[in-house]
Write a structure and sequence with these properties.
single chain, 489 residues, 5-stranded parallel sheet, 17% strand, globular, binds zinc ion
C-alpha cells in the first residue's frame, strides 16, 4: 500500500507541477478545518453531478482512497470499519471542486470613499492572503488562477505553503504581475516601457515560479506580442483584460484567454485608436455587438479558430443592472470588516444618485449572454470566475457560486453552468486528466452540497464539506475563521 502510494505520487509529480496527490503532514492551522480524513472514505447514497454536463445520477457511492476517486458505484449501505469512514449523504449532491478562473488574492480599497461614490487616488489593492484562500475553499473552489497579482512573492509562497499543508486553501495557478502599459491608474502594477521590458518581465517571473500571465488595459500590441511569445516559449499561457488591444487583435497575436466575457472588447468603440484604450473601455462595443451580426459572427469565428478561451465574470457586472442586485448574503457580510461592509452599502446605494448610464445595462447584459451562448455553440471554451474586487459586493468563493447562478439565469442549464465552472477550467489548465469532473481515477477534489443544484442552482451555496486531494474540509469552520476579517488581511 505504502509503496503503491509513493509510486503514484512520483508519477503525478512528474506529470504536472500543480499536482499534489497525497495529503502532506498538516499544520495545526490546517488541522482545525479538517472534518474527514482517512485511508478509505465512502460517500454513500449521494447524487452525482459529474461536471461533464451529463444529467445527474441518483443514489451513488463515491469511494475515495489515497486522495483519488477509486470508484463510483450504485448506492448501498456500507459499514464503518477499521480504515473505512462512511458518510451517509442521502439528500446531498457531490460535484467537482470549482476551478475559479478569475479569482484574486487581493481586495480593492477606495480611500475616503463617500456617499457620492467619490474616493481619493490612488486606488489600492491590499493583499488578502489570510482570508481569500479560506473563503475560496469554504465555497468549494479547489483550484484557482490568481489572474493578476500585486504581491507575487506572497502568492508564490502561499501556493507553496498550501501545497505543503501549512495553510488552508485551494490549489493555485499563480499569475504574474499584471502586464500593464505605461499609462495606468493602477499604482501597484508594472508599467511596461516597451516590448523588451514585457519580455524581460515575463522571463523574470517565469523563472520564479509563476505559471500564468495576464495582460492589462493599456498594454500595446508590440508589448503583448513579446509577452505572449516569451510565455509560450516556456509553455505558459497568457490571458488579458484588454482595452488598448481589441479581442480580434489579441486573438491574432496568439493570446490564450480573454477576461470579462465580451464586456471589454473595444473594436466598435468610437474614436478607438490602435494601442490606446478608448474612453468607453468597451461599453460601446458590447452595446452595439449582437451575436448574430457580421461583427459578432466574425469575432466568434476568430476566437474559436485561434483557440482563445473566454472567461465570463458576470458577478462583477451584476451590480450595474441595479434593482437590488446582487442579493445580499448574510454570510458574505459576516466575512467582511466593518469598513468593508460600510463600503459595500455606500456603493450599493449608487443606483439612486448615479447619473444616467451611457449604455443601457439591460441591452449590454443581453448581448453578453447571447455572445457567450454563441461562443459555446461554436465550440469555444467558456471559463468562469467572479473577479472578487470590484465593488465589495463580489467576494472570493461566494462570487464563484454567484457566477454559476448567473450563468443559469442567462440560459445555461445547471449542469452546463457547473461544467463551465469546473471541467472547462481544468481543460484550459491542461489538468483535465486529474481534476474537473467526478470520475474514477481523478483527484478527489469534490464539493458536497445539501440539496440538488441540478434542479435548483442556488443549492450550490449549501456547501457542507469540500474535499481536496481526498481530505474533507469543514466549510462552516473555514468561514467562521474569516468572520469580520475580509477587507483587512
Ligand atoms: Zn480581475
Amino acid at each position: 500500500m505504502r509503496l503503491r502510494t509513493s509510486i503514484c505520487v512520483a508519477t503525478l509529480l512528474l506529470s504536472s507541477s500543480l499536482a499534489l496527490a497525497q495529503a502532506p503532514a498538516f499544520s495545526k492551522t490546517v488541522q482545525q478545518f479538517i472534518r474527514t480524513q482517512g485511508a478509505r472514505i465512502v460517500l454513500t447514497h449521494v447524487r452525482v453531478v459529474d461536471g461533464t454536463g451529463a444529467a445527474p445520477v441518483e443514489d451513488q457511492n463515491v469511494v475515495i482512497e489515497a486522495g483519488k476517486i477509486s470508484s463510483i458505484e450504485p448506492g448501498k449501505d456500507v459499514q464503518t470499519s477499521d480504515g473505512t469512514t462512511v458518510l451517509d449523504l442521502k439528500g446531498y449532491t457531490v460535484l467537482p471542486g470549482l476551478v475559479g478562473m478569475h479569482n484574486h488574492l487581493f481586495y480593492i480599497v477606495r480611500p475616503n470613499l463617500n456617499a457620492n461614490r467619490r474616493s481619493e487616488d490612488p486606488l489600492l489593492v491590499p493583499q488578502m492572503t489570510f482570508s481569500a484562500p479560506r473563503l475560496y475553499l469554504a465555497a468549494g473552489v479547489t483550484t484557482m488562477r490568481t489572474t493578476g497579482s500585486v504581491e507575487t512573492y506572497a502568492d508564490l509562497n502561499l501556493k507553496k505553503d498550501i501545497d505543503a499543508g501549512k495553510l488552508p486553501g485551494p490549489h493555485i495557478d499563480v499569475t504574474g504581475p499584471y502586464l500593464e502599459g505605461s499609462e495606468s491608474y493602477f499604482i501597484q502594477m508594472p508599467h511596461l516601457k516597451n516590448a523588451d521590458d514585457a519580455r524581460q518581465t515575463v522571463e523574470f517571473w517565469a523563472d520564479r515560479g509563476v505559471t500564468s500571465f495576464k495582460a492589462y488595459m493599456n498594454i500595446t500590441r508590440a508589448e503583448l506580442k513579446a509577452a505572449i511569445d516569451a510565455a509560450h516559449a516556456r509553455g505558459i499561457k497568457v490571458t488579458g483584460h484588454l482595452c488598448s488591444v481589441t479581442y480580434k487583435e489579441a486573438a491574432e497575436l496568439g493570446i490564450d484567454d480573454l477576461e470579462h466575457g465580451f464586456f471589454v472588447n473595444t473594436q466598435l468603440d468610437s474614436g478607438k485608436k490602435p494601442d490606446v484604450c478608448s474612453e468607453s473601455a468597451g461599453d460601446e462595443t458590447i452595446e452595439r455587438m449582437e451575436a448574430s451580426s457580421p461583427e459578432g459572427k466574425d469575432l466568434i469565428n476568430t476566437l474559436v479558430q485561434h483557440h482563445v478561451a473566454i472567461t465570463t465574470t458576470l458577478p462583477v457586472f451584476e451590480g450595474d443592472l441595479g434593482g437590488g442586485r446582487p442579493p445580499v448574503r448574510q454570510e458574505a457580510l459576516d466575512a467582511m470588516t466593518p469598513q468593508a461592509r460600510e463600503d459595500f452599502f455606500l456603493l450599493r446605494q449608487r443606483r439612486t444618485p448615479a447619473p444616467t448610464p451611457k449604455v443601457d445595462p439591460k441591452t449590454v447584459w443581453k448581448h453578453e449572454m447571447d455572445l457567450e451562448h454563441a461562443f459555446v455553440a461554436a465550440g469555444g471554451l467558456l471559463l468562469s470566475g467572479p473577479d472578487p474586487t470590484g465593488r465589495a459586493d463580489v467576494l472570493p468563493g461566494f462570487g464563484d457560486q454567484r457566477g454559476i447562478e448567473l450563468l443559469v439565469e442567462g440560459g445555461f442549464t445547471p449542469v452546463e453552468a457547473i461544467k463551465i465552472a469546473t471541467l472547462n477550467g481544468a481543460v484550459y489548465l491542461g489538468r483535465e486528466k486529474q481534476i474537473g469532473s467526478v470520475a474514477k481515477g481523478k483527484n478527489a477534489d469534490l464539493v458536497v452540497v445539501k440539496g440538488d443544484p441540478s434542479k435548483q442552482i442556488s443549492d450550490i451555496e449549501n456547501v457542507e464539506i469540500v474535499f481536496k486531494d481526498g481530505v474533507g474540509y469543514d466549510s462552516k469552520k473555514l468561514l467562521e475563521s474569516v468572520r469580520g476579517r475580509y477587507g483587512q488581511y
